[in-house]
Write a structure and sequence with these properties.
Chain lengths: 453, 175
C-alpha cells in the first residue's frame, strides 16, 4: 500500500473532466443575484428611500406601507403601459389585462389566484399556445397595494406548495411538486415544478417561476408533456426567458432602478457577525450534567418548526446563525435570520403564526395543544406554547416558541423542556413565557444593529 | 476585481477548488455545482472579495458550506439533490486507488477530513488551515494527526474499504 499522505498529496481528481459554465454566465448569474438581493434590501436602499428620488415610485398619493416595517413608500398602483411583459416569449404571444397564469391550486388549497382574498390592484397577463399543448407559456404581473401584501402572496404560494409535495388529485394521476432553489433563491423568488406521476414515470411538467420586487409579483409558467429526467432544464430555461422582465421589475421596488450596483455594496450588513451574542440572557455554563453552550455556528442544523404535523416553510433568508444551550432536562435553541426586507421577514412571521393554535392527536390518549400567545418583543412577533394532555390529565413537558421580527431580521427561539411535572395551567404558561421573554430581550435589543439602529 | 480578473480567477481556480471540495464531500457532481454557485456569489459580492486576502479560500469555504447545507436539506426532504441547473460532468472511470481513497475520506469525521484536505490537497500550512476553519492551530494539528492515523488504518490492505477492496467499496460508507 502506498503512503496515505502521498495518496492525498497526489489527489488529482482523475476523470474529473469538467464542463463548467462560461465565466460570462457566472458573472451574469452573479449580477442577477446581486440585483435581486439589493433591489429589495432594507440595507441602504430602504433607509435611504426618503432621500433617493425614485422616478417611478412616487405616482400614488396617499398610500404607505406599515410604519413599523419601513419608512413610508408610495407604491405604484398601476402597471406602466410599456412594461415589457412579453419580452423573451415566442412571437405570437398575446397580452391582456387579465392574468395569463391560471389560479395555482394544489392539495385542494389555493396557492395563488388573482381572484383570491388578497386581490392585486392591477394586473396584466400574457399567453402563448393553446392550454395543455406542448410549449405553452403564460405570464402574469400582479401589482399589490404594498410590498407587505405582495410578500404575503408569495409566502402563501411557497407555503402551499412546500406543504404539498404530492397531490392525490382525486381520480386523476397524482401530481408531484418540487421546489428548487436556483441561484437567486430567496424570499423574493420561488421556482418549482408540478408533474403528473405514473409509477416511476413523471410527465406533463409545468415549470413555475415567481419573483417579487417591491409590491409587484411576477409569475411565469411553461408546460411540456415530457417530465422527470427528460426535462431537467425546464426551470432554468424558464428563468432565462424571464430575465428581461425580471430585470425591469426594479421599477416597482422601493428605491427604483437607480440604486443598483453601488447600493449593493452595503449588502454586507445582511451578514450576521460570527460573534453575534445569540445566547445572551442564558447562563454561561450549564449544570454538571449539561452540555451547555453550543455555537453560535452557521453549520448547526436549522430549527425545524412543526405544528400539528405541518412544517413551517424554509425561510429562505440571506443569512442564518444558530446556537443552542443544551441541558439535561431540555434545550434552548435560537436561530437568527436576515431577510431581504421587512416585508419578507413579516411574511415569514405571519406564515408561522398562521399555524397556531391547533391540536394534534398523538395516539395512546395523548393530545398536543399548540397555543398561540402574543409577545411584546420586537416590532412584531408571536409566541407558541405546546403542552400535552394524557388521558385527560396534564402531561409531562412543554415547548415554547418565539418568532420575533426587528426590521428585516427574525429571531426564532424554541425552548423544549422534558419531564417537568408542573401542570401547565394558563398562569403557568404566562409565567414561563414571561421568563423566556426576559431571557430573549438582550438578543432582541441587539438585533437593532440590523435595522439601522 | 474587474471582469477580466474575475474570469482569470475563475478559469485558473475552478478545477482546483472543485477537486478539493470533492475530496471533502465525496461527490463530484455536487462539488462542481457548489463551486459554481460559490463563484456566482463571489461575483455578486466582488467588492467584499476585493477586501479578502484569500479569495480562493472564500470560494472554497462558501462552496463547502453550500454542500453541507444542501446535503442537510436533501436529507431532510428525502429527495434527490437538484440536478436541474447543472451541466453534465464528463467523468471517466476513476482508478481503484482513487475510489478507495475517496471512500476512506468519507468515513472520517467531517472536521478531520476537512483538515486533511486543506493541508495535504490544498497545500495550505497549518496556520492557514486554522484561519480558514476558524479554530486554533493546535486543534488543526490534533485533527491532522488523528485523521492521518485513521486514514492509514482505513487504507490498510486488509481493512474493509482498503485499497485492495477496490471500486465496490465506495458506496459502503458514508461520512
Amino acid at each position: 500500500m502506498r503512503d496515505p499522505i502521498e495518496e492525498l498529496e497526489n489527489f488529482t481528481s482523475p476523470g474529473l473532466t469538467m464542463t463548467p459554465i462560461p465565466a460570462s454566465e457566472v458573472r451574469r448569474r452573479g449580477t442577477r443575484l446581486r440585483r435581486r438581493n439589493t433591489a429589495l434590501a432594507t440595507i441602504g436602499g430602504i433607509a435611504a428611500v426618503a432621500v433617493i428620488a425614485t422616478p417611478l415610485a412616487v405616482l400614488a398619493s396617499n398610500h404607505s406601507s406599515k410604519a413599523d416595517v419601513e419608512p413610508a413608500t408610495d407604491w405604484h398602483q398601476t402597471i406602466p403601459a410599456d412594461f415589457p411583459l412579453t419580452a423573451g416569449m415566442p412571437n405570437g404571444s398575446t397580452q391582456s389585462d387579465a392574468s395569463g397564469v391560471d389560479p395555482i391550486e394544489t392539495c385542494g388549497n389555493v396557492a395563488w389566484s388573482a381572484e383570491g382574498t388578497t386581490r392585486p390592484v392591477d394586473i396584466v397577463g400574457a399567453t402563448y399556445g393553446e392550454p395543455g399543448s406542448e410549449g405553452t407559456q403564460s405570464r402574469t404581473l400582479a401589482l399589490y397595494a404594498d410590498d407587505t401584501t405582495a410578500a404575503s402572496a408569495l409566502a402563501q404560494l411557497r407555503d402551499t406548495v412546500v406543504n404539498c409535495p404530492e397531490d392525490p388529485n382525486g381520480s386523476g394521476a397524482p401530481l408531484v411538486n418540487e421546489v428548487v432553489e436556483l441561484a437567486a433563491g430567496s424570499d423574493t423568488s420561488l421556482f418549482f415544478t408540478n408533474q403528473a406521476k405514473d409509477g416511476d414515470l413523471l410527465y406533463d411538467l409545468t415549470a413555475y417561476e415567481a419573483v417579487r420586487s417591491g409590491n409587484a409579483l411576477y409569475l411565469a409558467t411553461s408546460f411540456s408533456s415530457a417530465g422527470g429526467s427528460q426535462n431537467v432544464g425546464a426551470l432554468d430555461r424558464l428563468d432565462r426567458a424571464s430575465q428581461p422582465v425580471v430585470d425591469q421589475m426594479c421599477v416597482f421596488s422601493a428605491d427604483g432602478c437607480g440604486a443598483d450596483e453601488t447600493a449593493g455594496d452595503s449588502a454586507d450588513t445582511t451578514v450576521i457577525p460570527d460573534d453575534f451574542d445569540l445566547l445572551a440572557g442564558l447562563p454561561e455554563d450549564g449544570e454538571a450534567t449539561d452540555i451547555g453552550r453550543v455555537g453560535p455556528d452557521r453549520e448547526l442544523a436549522p430549527i425545524d418548526l412543526d405544528a400539528c404535523g405541518t412544517k413551517a416553510p424554509e425561510p429562505g433568508s440571506f443569512d442564518r446563525l444558530r446556537a443552542d444551550f443544551r441541558q439535561a432536562v431540555g434545550i434552548h435553541e435560537r436561530q437568527l435570520m436576515t431577510f431581504p426586507d421587512g416585508a419578507a421577514a413579516q411574511a415569514y412571521v405571519d406564515i408561522v403564526a398562521g399555524r397556531l393554535p391547533c391540536s394534534e392527536d398523538g395516539g395512546r390518549g395523548v393530545t398536543g395543544y399548540y397555543e398561540r400567545r402574543d409577545t411584546a418583543l420586537g416590532d412584531s412577533g408571536v409566541a407558541g406554547f405546546l403542552h400535552f394532555i394524557v388521558n385527560g390529565d396534564p402531561g409531562l413537558g412543554y415547548e415554547m416558541t418565539h418568532v420575533v421580527r426587528v426590521g428585516s431580521t427574525v429571531l426564532l427561539s424554541r425552548v423544549q423542556v422534558d419531564g417537568d411535572s408542573t401542570p401547565v395551567t394558563d398562569e403557568v404558561q404566562a409565567n414561563l413565557l414571561a421568563e423566556a421573554e426576559t431571557e430573549l430581550a438582550p438578543v432582541v435589543d441587539a438585533m437593532a444593529v440590523f435595522d439601522g439602529g | 476585481m474587474d471582469e477580466r480578473e474575475f474570469d482569470d480567477f475563475y478559469s485558473t481556480s475552478f478545477q482546483r477548488i472543485t477537486g478539493q471540495v470533492y475530496a471533502m464531500i465525496g461527490n463530484r457532481d455536487e462539488a462542481q455545482e457548489c463551486v459554481q454557485e460559490a463563484f456566482v456569489r463571489a461575483w455578486a459580492h466582488r467588492k467584499k472579495l476585493d477586501r479578502t486576502e484569500h479569495p480562493e479560500a472564500w470560494v472554497r469555504t462558501t462552496a463547502y458550506r453550500l454542500a453541507v447545507s444542501r446535503w442537510r436539506r436533501t436529507t431532510r426532504a428525502r429527495r434527490p439533490a437538484d440536478r436541474a441547473v447543472s451541466l453534465a460532468t464528463e467523468a471517466a472511470a476513476p482508478s481503484e486507488t482513487h475510489v478507495a481513497l475517496v471512500a476512506a475520506l468519507k468515513q472520517l469525521p467531517e472536521v478531520q477530513r476537512q483538515a486533511l484536505v486543506l493541508h495535504h490537497i490544498a497545500d495550505l500550512p497549518v496556520q492557514e488551515v486554522a484561519r480558514e476553519v476558524g479554530v486554533p492551530e493546535g486543534t488543526i494539528k490534533a485533527r491532522l494527526s488523528r485523521g492521518r492515523t485513521a486514514l492509514a488504518a482505513l487504507l490498510a490492505d486488509d481493512a474493509p474499504g482498503g485499497l485492495s477492496r477496490g471500486i465496490g467499496t465506495e458506496g459502503a460508507s458514508h461520512a
